[in-house]
């Protein structure tokens, strides 16, 4: 056996024994961004402006300018994003240890429950039951909440607002504390527009995923897709945000490796 496993990994990808799966939504001006109360600051949507396209504006070049908020599209939350993580070391996108950008993933299937209740809250007991079937969640792994929410192609349905606010699933307080304090996870990922549920302002503390995950120096992923293509355990995800100085987050390309033999 080769003492260096990297050539074997590259060969496995070339031979389709290791499948590379894109967990990223395509950034377009139509992709919905997080909406906050009107009196608060707002995240910019993704905007694209053509610089040149093989014409007199740029000779042989095609390229664009783009603008967006740090938390637009499929994106990464760094600890500095939330008040609980503001004073931690290595808490922004330019200082996150690069070894934390490659980690195993556990995919928790909540699809049937979310189909019945858009406000479904993932509980610590749900996670313990999941572990009875799939094994204990390893330390420093991602927990990705599969809901198939990413299959909602209509932006209005994806946001899912009514007069009470947004209705999207997420973890409850006990689930997040369990993952941080008892399982030492790398982070939490969601197919929805936030790691917290749409009604998580009513939990204690408000937005517990942001509060506990970032307070522990860990990370969040939002607007994921294709979680239905991942096994419950055994995949590895790559989550490298843009290296923005003091960045609170960043759009990114999330990739997963899955062994198919």
Helices and strands in order:
Blueprint: H1 6-14, E1 18-22, E2 47-53, E3 62-67, E4 75-77, E5 102-109, H2 111-116, E6 121-122, H3 124-134, E7 142-146, H4 155-159, E8 161-162, E9 165-166, E10 170-171, H5 173-182, E11 187-190, H6 208-215, E12 219-222, E13 235-238, E14 249-251, E15 255-259
Write a brief caption for the model.
The chain is α/β, with parallel strands linked by helices. Helix content is 19%, strand content 24%.
Features:
261 residues; alpha/beta; Glucose Oxidase, domain 1; 9-stranded mixed sheet; 6 helices
Polypeptide structure, described:
19% of the residues lie in helices and 24% in strands. The protein has 261 residues and is α/β, with parallel strands linked by helices. Helix 5 runs parallel beside helix 6 (208-215). The model has no long low-confidence stretch (mean pLDDT 96).
> Count of helices?
6
Q: What is the strand tally? A: 15
Structural class: alpha/beta
Shape descriptor reads globular
Placed side by side, the strands forming the largest sheet appear as 1-15-13-5-7-11-12-4-14
**Which CATH architecture would you pick?**
3-Layer(bba) Sandwich
CATH level 4 superfamily: Putative cyclase
Q: How many domains make up the coordinates?
A: 1
Radius of gyration, taken over Cα atoms and rounded to an integer in Å: 19 Å
What's the story with the biggest beta sheet? 9 strands, mixed
Please provide the ordered H/E string of secondary-structure elements.
Answer: HEEEEEHEHEHEEEHEHEEEE
CATH fold-level name:
Glucose Oxidase, domain 1
Low-confidence stretches: none
Fraction of residues in helix:
10-25%
Distance between the termini: 17 Å
Strand content: 15-25%
Mean pLDDT: 96
Overall CATH class:
Alpha Beta
């Amino acid at each position: 056996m080769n003492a260096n496993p990297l050539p074997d990994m590259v060969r496995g990808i070339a031979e389709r024994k290791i499948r590379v799966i894109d967990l990223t939504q395509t950034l377009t001006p139509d992709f919905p961004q997080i909406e906050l109360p009107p009196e608060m600051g707002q995240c910019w949507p993704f905007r694209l402006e053509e610089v040149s396209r093989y014409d007199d504006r740029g000779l042989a070049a095609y390229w664009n300018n783009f603008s967006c908020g740090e938390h637009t599209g499929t994106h990464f939350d760094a600890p500095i994003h939330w008040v609980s993580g503001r004073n931690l070391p290595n808490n922004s996108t330019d200082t996150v240890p690069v070894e934390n950008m490659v980690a195993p993933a556990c995919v928790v299937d909540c699809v049937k429950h979310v189909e019945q209740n858009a406000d479904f809250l993932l509980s610590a007991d749900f996670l313990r039951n999941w572990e009875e079937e799939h094994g204990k969640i390893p330390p420093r792994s991602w927990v990705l909440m599969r809901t198939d929410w990413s299959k909602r192609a209509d932006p209005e349905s994806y946001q899912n607002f009514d007069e009470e606010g947004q209705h999207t699933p997420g973890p409850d307080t006990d689930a997040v504390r369990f993952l941080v304090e008892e399982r030492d996870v790398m982070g939490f990922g969601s197919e929805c527009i936030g790691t917290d549920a749409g009604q998580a302002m009513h939990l204690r503390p408000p937005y517990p995923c942001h509060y506990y995950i970032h307070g522990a120096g860990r990370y969040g992923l939002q607007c994921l897709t294709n979680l239905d293509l991942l096994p419950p355990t055994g995949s590895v995800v790559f989550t490298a945000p843009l290296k923005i100085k003091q960045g609170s987050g960043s759009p990114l390309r999330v990739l997963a490796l899955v062994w198919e033999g």
